[in-house]
């Protein structure tokens, strides 16, 4: 039997801060149970009224998320072990979609940069070789 959906789950759903499978489960449950949809409206209403718990503020501001600089350092493998362990935990256990998107973006940029560097090197080698061949 699936775990019951809590108010905290609805707040995280509202922020799109849950793993995809959990987002889909809540979406399906919302369609099947109108009373849960009313709870989601209440969560939204409390936010609009300025009523927040510490947990909601923590999640909304993503205070436990690593910065892009830290994610970049993680990709380069230059973080201390405990920092790298925390980032792994953040991805594997917490399943933070926002950080996963940031990491994917950084990985794509790194791949682009690597391709550009390789292409630049290739041009330089060709230009220097062509110069020798002309002589």
Provide structural commentary.
It is a single chain. This protein is 78% helix and 0% strand. The protein has 135 residues and is mostly helical. The chain folds into 2 domains: 63 residues, no CATH class; 71 residues. α1 packs across α3 and α5 packs across α7. The termini are far apart. The relative contact order is 0.08. The mean pLDDT is 84.
What secondary-structure arrangement, pairings included, does this model have?
Layout: H1 7-14, H2 20-32, H3 34-49, H4 54-60, H5 68-76, H6 81-94, H7 97-134
Helix pairs in contact: 1-3, 2-3, 5-7
- Tell me, briefly, the overall form: elongated
The radius of gyration is 23 Å
Which class of secondary structure composition applies to the elements? mainly alpha
The helix tally amounts to: 7
Give helix % range.
over 70%
- Pattern of helices and strands: HHHHHHH
Per DSSP, what share of the residues sits in E-state strands of 2 or more residues? under 5%
State the assembly state of the protein chains.
single chain
Low-confidence stretches: none
Number of structurally distinct domains = 2
Q: Characterize the main sheet.
A: none
Alpha carbon gap, first and last residue: 79 Å
Q: Could you tell me the number of beta strands?
A: 0
């Amino acid at each position: 039997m699936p775990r019951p959906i809590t108010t905290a789950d609805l707040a995280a759903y509202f922020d799109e801060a849950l793993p995809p499978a959990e987002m889909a489960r809540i979406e399906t449950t919302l369609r099947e149970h109108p009373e849960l949809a009313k709870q989601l409206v209440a969560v939204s209403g409390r936010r609009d009224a300025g009523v927040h718990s510490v947990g909601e503020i923590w999640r909304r501001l993503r205070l436990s998320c690593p910065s892009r600089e830290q994610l970049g350092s993680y990709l380069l493998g230059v973080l201390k072990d405990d920092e790298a362990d925390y980032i792994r935990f953040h991805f594997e256990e917490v399943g933070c979609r926002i950080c996963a998107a940031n990491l994917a973006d950084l990985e794509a940029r790194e791949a682009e940069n690597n391709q550009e560097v390789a292409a630049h090197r290739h041009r330089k080698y060709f230009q220097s070789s062509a110069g020798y061949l002309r002589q």
